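hey so i finaly got around to running the thing on AraC-like DNA-binding protein from Prosthecobacter fusiformis. pasting the sequence first so u can double check i didnt mess up the copy paste, my clipboard has been acting weird all day
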Amino acid sequence: MKVVMQVEREQIQIPSGHSFRVLRWSRSLREVECVLGPDQAERVTGEGTHWHFHVEMELTLFIAGEGTRFVGDHIGAFAPGDLVLLGERLPHYWHTRQASSGISVQWYFPLGHAFWSFPETAALADVFRRAGHGLHLRGQTAEAVSGWLQEMTQADGLQQLALLLRILSCIQQAAAGEHRPLSGRSFALAAESHYQQAIAKAVRHLVAHYREEVRLEEVLKLTHLSRPTFARQFKKHSGRTMSEFLNHLRIQAACRELVESDRSVLEIALRCGFTQVSFFNRLFRRVMKCSPSRYRAGK
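ok and heres what it spat out for the 3d tokens, dont ask me to read them lol
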């Protein structure tokens, strides 16, 4: 029997009287507040704990917490201070290892929106375009933007708008070394993707079981998709094949183990789901541009 997936993208509700929304969390991405003004907030459903996308752009700061960041076809580690600008319809997910806290701002200013009626905003068009790959912000830019984001959680609507414009201007003027694209490709997922829920289930399964042998048959049963449909949709939504996605998960886990433990390279490779250390070493060199031993020594 064919199962039709009815879900989709995150449905973001911009608060009445606002043109964007400011979110914060103090323990978990599941427990999120929408900040309406000083000492005024309301609970909203947190969606950051699973693979998803939305038409709105998003700027996310992690004040505390660490884990694995998924943005488009990018898989990488993140730590406190991580600051990322996401473009429209860019799939993303933060897998946190413990409790976390942070701030997000979400907005949707498509062509034709009143935002672009001010000629000064034309300078931001290129930033919005490059955000389609996800932009990781660093250095003085990240430091300044992080401070303004925290101010936004204590500001009223007009003050929040002024801070958002200041933030966007700062990103637009950032030095070349203070921002880098994360995803190798941009994404143009339909506003309503019938396969989004199925791919989210697959991603959660891979993240939970990457240390084990993962069989495609198990994933197909979980998603209720045929082999060709799953292969096509997984790559469309994640930018990678399932095996590529799984291997990059394992490499990121190995990087953490190399830094945080004194286990041998062989033991780490096996603990992270690799069955052949020779394959692990070749893949590690290709992805990280150095050997596991050199990576450990460099950290």
